[in-house]
Amino acid sequence: ASVVNKIAAGEIIIAPVNALKEMMENSIDAGSTNIDILIKDGGLKILQITDNGSGIDKKDLPILCERFTTSKLSAYEDLNSLKTYGFRGEALASISHIARVTVTTKTKDDPCAWKVSYADGKMIGEPKPTAGKDGTAILVEDLFFNVQSRLRALRSPSDEYAKVLDCVGRYAIHSKNVGFSCKKFGDSQYSLNVGVDSTTQERIRTVFGGNVASNILEFNTHKLEEYGLEAAIGQVSNLNFNNKKHIPPIFFINNRLVTCDPLRRSLNQIYSLYLPKGNKSFIYLGLMIRPDLVDVNVHPTKREVRFLHETEITEYISTKLQDTLSDIDT
Ligand code: ADP
Ligand code: MG
């Protein structure tokens, strides 16, 4: 890979979880109702994602991993939404500069699947016909094989796996009508398995355990044509989830996992006033908002967002939260 391309890729993909997040979003964008993930060595050796979405047309395969090639422009035409999804057509390109990528894909109109590999943004040879179901499987091998500094900076494979699993869990909670599974290579058991028909509560229970899901309150609100909010909040006693001390808030904006510090801070403030000692917060928010009302501080790995109606939405959730928590208190 050229040095420039490698550096650019290394800024977008700093750990296996970043690559996985991009690929899960692609699978969801492709209308998948099932996403299976297989991981070896924390995603450094193998990171594989198999979906049952639209598949990729054979004619699009030659440029699949070229930078700035995307099939998604129409939906996101204005500048702000371009910022929101700041890296149009860069994810697969980036990954192909720092890993070996093999794609197997089949559209419903194609009688067979096509398999092809990529390196440094380019297709290697020609796609080969193969057996396969409708959908796309992307196999990423030897991530960072050519970026030794990045490899050295990473934590252990088990830490990287924990990050992957956490990210899959968050998408599984948010993405209704999509089933998810995640497992380690060689394991017969899934680390996570969420059925396509699961409700939000069931998804939360599967991901975080019954202890979390037993106290959840769901609610939603919307402002016509501007935003729609779905939320689930609760408190957790005796949190014993992968030795975690707390569950960071899960916040999706327009189906992308993001962070929003002001919102997180005000909710934490309320929790700290009302939550019985030792109990922890659980917050899931899914916000759909008109793309031009969202602004993203464009660092791709942080995804910190600002949005219009932030105060209004924060206040709404805060009030709900306060009501719930003070009810529990008395
Ligand atoms: P972007 O998602 O911004 O368009 P990506 O580099 O993530 O850019 O993906 C490039 C293109 O590859 C997408 O626009 C899409 O057409 C295609 N693609 C990637 N993954 C999948 C998938 N799982 N199913 C169908 N198409 C996909
Ligand atoms: Mg993408």
Automatic annotation (TrEMBL):
It comes from the Eukaryota. Residues 204-326 form the DNA mismatch repair protein S5 domain. Keywords: DNA damage, DNA repair, Nucleus. GO terms for cellular component: MutLalpha complex. GO terms for biological process: meiosis I cell cycle process; mismatch repair. GO terms for molecular function: ATP binding; ATP hydrolysis activity; ATP-dependent DNA damage sensor activity; mismatched DNA binding. Transmembrane segments: none annotated. It is found in: Nucleus. Belongs to the DNA mismatch repair MutL/HexB family. This is LAFE_0E09626g1_1. It comes from Lachancea fermentati (Zygosaccharomyces fermentati).
